[in-house]
Amino acid sequence: MPVKIISDSTCDLSQELLRKYDIEVAPLTVTLGNRSGPDGAEITPEDIYRYVETSGQLPKTSAVNLMAYEALFRKWRKKGFEIIHFCISSEFSSSWQNACVAAQETGGVYPVDSRNLSTGQGLTVLKAAEMAMTGASVEEILRTCADMIPRVEASFVANSIDFLYKGGRCSALAALGANMFHIKPCIEVQDGTMVPRKKYRGSIQKVICAYVEDRLKGRTDIDLKRIFITHTRCREETVETVRRLIRQYQPGIEEILETTAGATITTHCGPETLGILFLRKM
pTM for the whole thing? Predict the structure, then answer.
Protein backbone atom coordinates (compact mmCIF):
# COMPACT_ATOMS: atom_id res chain seq x y z
CA MET A 1 0.00 0.00 0.00
CA PRO A 2 1.42 3.47 -0.87
CA VAL A 3 2.34 5.84 1.96
CA LYS A 4 1.16 9.45 2.21
CA ILE A 5 3.29 11.87 4.21
CA ILE A 6 1.42 14.60 6.07
CA SER A 7 2.83 17.24 8.43
CA ASP A 8 1.28 19.99 10.46
CA SER A 9 2.10 23.49 9.28
CA THR A 10 4.87 24.08 11.81
CA CYS A 11 7.34 22.17 9.61
CA ASP A 12 7.92 25.47 7.72
CA LEU A 13 8.61 23.78 4.38
CA SER A 14 8.19 26.02 1.35
CA GLN A 15 5.39 25.47 -1.15
CA GLU A 16 8.03 24.41 -3.65
CA LEU A 17 9.30 21.66 -1.35
CA LEU A 18 5.78 20.53 -0.45
CA ARG A 19 4.94 20.13 -4.14
CA LYS A 20 8.24 18.50 -5.05
CA TYR A 21 7.93 15.84 -2.34
CA ASP A 22 4.12 15.52 -2.47
CA ILE A 23 3.62 16.43 1.19
CA GLU A 24 0.18 17.35 2.55
CA VAL A 25 -0.09 19.98 5.30
CA ALA A 26 -2.53 20.12 8.22
CA PRO A 27 -2.58 23.79 9.26
CA LEU A 28 -2.71 25.01 12.83
CA THR A 29 -5.09 27.91 13.52
CA VAL A 30 -3.86 31.43 14.22
CA THR A 31 -6.14 33.97 15.92
CA LEU A 32 -5.61 37.73 15.63
CA GLY A 33 -8.21 39.38 17.84
CA ASN A 34 -11.57 38.54 16.27
CA ARG A 35 -10.02 37.01 13.15
CA SER A 36 -8.99 33.37 12.92
CA GLY A 37 -7.64 31.34 10.04
CA PRO A 38 -5.37 28.47 9.04
CA ASP A 39 -1.62 29.02 9.21
CA GLY A 40 -0.32 29.73 5.72
CA ALA A 41 -3.63 29.53 3.88
CA GLU A 42 -5.23 32.64 5.40
CA ILE A 43 -2.86 33.96 8.06
CA THR A 44 0.67 34.87 6.98
CA PRO A 45 3.71 36.15 8.87
CA GLU A 46 3.05 39.67 7.54
CA ASP A 47 -0.39 39.51 9.14
CA ILE A 48 1.35 38.67 12.43
CA TYR A 49 3.70 41.65 12.23
CA ARG A 50 0.89 44.08 11.38
CA TYR A 51 -1.28 42.80 14.21
CA VAL A 52 1.47 43.08 16.81
CA GLU A 53 2.49 46.55 15.61
CA THR A 54 -1.06 47.91 15.72
CA SER A 55 -2.45 46.12 18.79
CA GLY A 56 0.61 45.46 20.95
CA GLN A 57 -0.82 41.99 21.50
CA LEU A 58 0.48 38.63 20.34
CA PRO A 59 -1.75 36.36 18.24
CA LYS A 60 -2.86 33.03 19.66
CA THR A 61 -2.25 29.70 18.02
CA SER A 62 -4.25 26.53 18.42
CA ALA A 63 -3.67 22.92 17.51
CA VAL A 64 -5.15 21.08 14.57
CA ASN A 65 -8.47 19.89 15.99
CA LEU A 66 -9.81 16.37 16.04
CA MET A 67 -12.46 16.88 13.36
CA ALA A 68 -9.96 18.40 10.92
CA TYR A 69 -7.59 15.51 11.46
CA GLU A 70 -10.27 12.88 10.97
CA ALA A 71 -11.47 14.50 7.73
CA LEU A 72 -7.92 14.75 6.38
CA PHE A 73 -6.96 11.21 7.34
CA ARG A 74 -10.15 9.70 5.91
CA LYS A 75 -9.61 11.52 2.62
CA TRP A 76 -6.27 9.79 2.07
CA ARG A 77 -7.38 6.44 3.47
CA LYS A 78 -10.25 6.38 0.93
CA LYS A 79 -7.64 6.90 -1.78
CA GLY A 80 -5.87 3.74 -0.64
CA PHE A 81 -2.94 5.23 1.30
CA GLU A 82 -1.43 4.45 4.63
CA ILE A 83 -0.52 7.69 6.38
CA ILE A 84 2.46 8.89 8.39
CA HIS A 85 1.75 12.22 10.06
CA PHE A 86 4.39 14.44 11.67
CA CYS A 87 3.56 16.81 14.52
CA ILE A 88 5.36 19.64 16.24
CA SER A 89 6.84 18.44 19.55
CA SER A 90 4.13 17.30 21.96
CA GLU A 91 5.74 19.65 24.50
CA PHE A 92 4.59 22.65 22.43
CA SER A 93 1.10 21.74 21.24
CA SER A 94 -1.79 19.33 21.67
CA SER A 95 -1.71 18.56 17.92
CA TRP A 96 0.09 15.31 18.74
CA GLN A 97 -2.63 14.15 21.12
CA ASN A 98 -5.38 15.10 18.65
CA ALA A 99 -3.59 13.30 15.82
CA CYS A 100 -3.27 10.15 17.94
CA VAL A 101 -6.99 10.10 18.74
CA ALA A 102 -7.92 10.71 15.09
CA ALA A 103 -5.49 7.99 13.99
CA GLN A 104 -7.17 5.47 16.29
CA GLU A 105 -10.57 6.41 14.92
CA THR A 106 -9.42 6.18 11.30
CA GLY A 107 -6.94 3.30 11.25
CA GLY A 108 -3.91 3.01 9.01
CA VAL A 109 -2.49 6.29 10.33
CA TYR A 110 0.83 6.55 12.17
CA PRO A 111 1.46 9.84 14.03
CA VAL A 112 5.07 10.82 14.73
CA ASP A 113 6.07 13.23 17.50
CA SER A 114 8.92 15.12 15.83
CA ARG A 115 10.24 16.36 19.22
CA ASN A 116 11.08 19.52 17.31
CA LEU A 117 9.68 22.51 15.47
CA SER A 118 10.06 24.41 12.22
CA THR A 119 12.49 22.81 9.78
CA GLY A 120 13.93 20.74 12.62
CA GLN A 121 10.69 18.87 12.05
CA GLY A 122 10.92 19.50 8.32
CA LEU A 123 14.19 17.58 8.02
CA THR A 124 12.46 14.39 9.16
CA VAL A 125 9.39 15.08 7.03
CA LEU A 126 11.53 15.45 3.89
CA LYS A 127 13.37 12.19 4.55
CA ALA A 128 10.09 10.36 5.05
CA ALA A 129 8.71 11.84 1.83
CA GLU A 130 11.83 10.82 -0.11
CA MET A 131 11.44 7.26 1.15
CA ALA A 132 7.70 7.17 0.40
CA MET A 133 8.37 8.26 -3.19
CA THR A 134 10.72 5.30 -3.66
CA GLY A 135 8.12 2.84 -2.36
CA ALA A 136 9.41 2.29 1.17
CA SER A 137 7.00 0.72 3.63
CA VAL A 138 5.50 2.38 6.70
CA GLU A 139 7.73 0.26 8.92
CA GLU A 140 10.90 1.24 7.05
CA ILE A 141 10.04 4.93 7.14
CA LEU A 142 9.14 4.89 10.84
CA ARG A 143 12.39 3.11 11.75
CA THR A 144 14.46 5.64 9.81
CA CYS A 145 12.64 8.60 11.35
CA ALA A 146 12.98 7.20 14.87
CA ASP A 147 16.74 7.11 14.26
CA MET A 148 16.80 10.64 12.84
CA ILE A 149 14.77 12.52 15.44
CA PRO A 150 17.43 12.48 18.21
CA ARG A 151 20.06 13.61 15.68
CA VAL A 152 18.29 16.79 14.56
CA GLU A 153 20.16 19.90 15.67
CA ALA A 154 17.79 22.85 15.72
CA SER A 155 18.67 26.28 17.08
CA PHE A 156 18.09 29.93 16.31
CA VAL A 157 19.06 33.43 17.37
CA ALA A 158 16.48 36.16 17.86
CA ASN A 159 16.98 39.88 17.41
CA SER A 160 14.52 40.53 20.24
CA ILE A 161 12.87 38.35 22.84
CA ASP A 162 9.74 40.52 22.97
CA PHE A 163 7.66 37.89 21.16
CA LEU A 164 9.03 35.14 23.42
CA TYR A 165 8.10 37.25 26.44
CA LYS A 166 4.60 38.06 25.19
CA GLY A 167 4.09 34.40 24.43
CA GLY A 168 5.10 33.37 27.94
CA ARG A 169 8.38 31.76 26.88
CA CYS A 170 10.57 33.97 29.08
CA SER A 171 10.18 36.21 32.13
CA ALA A 172 9.70 39.98 32.15
CA LEU A 173 13.04 40.34 33.92
CA ALA A 174 14.84 38.36 31.22
CA ALA A 175 13.18 40.44 28.50
CA LEU A 176 14.12 43.69 30.21
CA GLY A 177 17.74 42.61 30.68
CA ALA A 178 18.05 41.39 27.11
CA ASN A 179 16.71 44.65 25.68
CA MET A 180 18.79 46.87 27.97
CA PHE A 181 22.06 45.10 27.18
CA HIS A 182 21.28 44.31 23.51
CA ILE A 183 21.47 40.58 24.18
CA LYS A 184 20.53 38.19 21.38
CA PRO A 185 19.92 34.73 22.84
CA CYS A 186 20.59 31.45 21.09
CA ILE A 187 17.71 29.04 21.67
CA GLU A 188 18.17 25.30 21.15
CA VAL A 189 15.56 22.58 20.88
CA GLN A 190 16.51 19.73 23.18
CA ASP A 191 14.35 16.74 24.10
CA GLY A 192 11.34 18.43 22.58
CA THR A 193 11.62 21.73 24.48
CA MET A 194 13.29 25.10 23.92
CA VAL A 195 16.40 25.77 26.02
CA PRO A 196 18.32 29.10 26.16
CA ARG A 197 22.03 28.71 25.48
CA LYS A 198 24.72 31.19 24.52
CA LYS A 199 23.96 34.91 24.77
CA TYR A 200 25.34 37.15 22.05
CA ARG A 201 25.66 40.93 22.03
CA GLY A 202 25.75 43.39 19.15
CA SER A 203 23.86 43.95 15.92
CA ILE A 204 21.79 41.04 14.66
CA GLN A 205 23.97 40.77 11.52
CA LYS A 206 27.13 40.45 13.61
CA VAL A 207 25.46 38.04 16.01
CA ILE A 208 24.19 35.78 13.23
CA CYS A 209 27.72 35.47 11.79
CA ALA A 210 29.10 34.51 15.21
CA TYR A 211 26.26 32.05 15.73
CA VAL A 212 26.88 30.27 12.39
CA GLU A 213 30.60 30.01 13.19
CA ASP A 214 29.85 28.52 16.63
CA ARG A 215 27.46 26.00 15.12
CA LEU A 216 29.53 24.81 12.16
CA LYS A 217 33.22 25.65 12.31
CA GLY A 218 35.56 22.68 12.78
CA ARG A 219 32.81 20.10 13.27
CA THR A 220 33.09 16.62 11.81
CA ASP A 221 29.83 15.21 13.15
CA ILE A 222 27.45 16.98 10.73
CA ASP A 223 25.47 15.01 8.16
CA LEU A 224 26.32 16.85 4.95
CA LYS A 225 23.22 15.93 2.94
CA ARG A 226 21.27 19.12 3.64
CA ILE A 227 21.02 22.11 5.92
CA PHE A 228 18.21 24.60 6.36
CA ILE A 229 18.45 28.34 6.76
CA THR A 230 15.09 29.27 8.25
CA HIS A 231 14.30 32.84 9.20
CA THR A 232 11.69 35.52 9.81
CA ARG A 233 11.95 38.79 7.89
CA CYS A 234 15.74 38.73 7.71
CA ARG A 235 17.51 40.87 5.12
CA GLU A 236 18.44 39.16 1.88
CA GLU A 237 22.09 40.11 2.33
CA THR A 238 22.08 38.53 5.80
CA VAL A 239 20.78 35.25 4.42
CA GLU A 240 23.35 35.31 1.62
CA THR A 241 26.11 35.89 4.19
CA VAL A 242 24.88 32.86 6.13
CA ARG A 243 24.89 30.79 2.95
CA ARG A 244 28.49 31.83 2.25
CA LEU A 245 29.57 31.01 5.82
CA ILE A 246 27.97 27.56 5.61
CA ARG A 247 30.04 26.84 2.50
CA GLN A 248 33.12 28.20 4.22
CA TYR A 249 32.80 26.17 7.44
CA GLN A 250 31.26 23.02 5.92
CA PRO A 251 32.27 22.94 2.24
CA GLY A 252 30.95 19.41 1.79
CA ILE A 253 27.30 20.38 2.32
CA GLU A 254 25.30 19.03 -0.61
CA GLU A 255 22.12 21.11 -0.29
CA ILE A 256 21.35 24.42 1.42
CA LEU A 257 17.62 25.12 1.63
CA GLU A 258 16.23 28.51 2.61
CA THR A 259 12.73 28.81 4.06
CA THR A 260 10.82 31.52 5.88
CA ALA A 261 8.99 30.53 9.04
CA GLY A 262 5.22 30.29 8.86
CA ALA A 263 2.70 32.21 10.92
CA THR A 264 2.69 29.82 13.89
CA ILE A 265 6.45 29.89 14.40
CA THR A 266 6.62 33.63 13.66
CA THR A 267 4.08 34.23 16.44
CA HIS A 268 6.56 32.89 18.97
CA CYS A 269 9.88 34.25 17.72
CA GLY A 270 9.21 37.58 15.96
CA PRO A 271 11.09 39.27 13.10
CA GLU A 272 14.81 38.95 12.36
CA THR A 273 15.14 35.50 13.85
CA LEU A 274 17.38 33.03 12.02
CA GLY A 275 18.32 29.41 12.55
CA ILE A 276 20.46 26.81 10.85
CA LEU A 277 19.06 23.31 11.20
CA PHE A 278 20.68 20.04 10.23
CA LEU A 279 21.35 16.45 11.22
CA ARG A 280 24.27 15.05 13.13
CA LYS A 281 25.87 11.86 11.87
CA MET A 282 24.98 8.55 13.48
Answer: 0.92
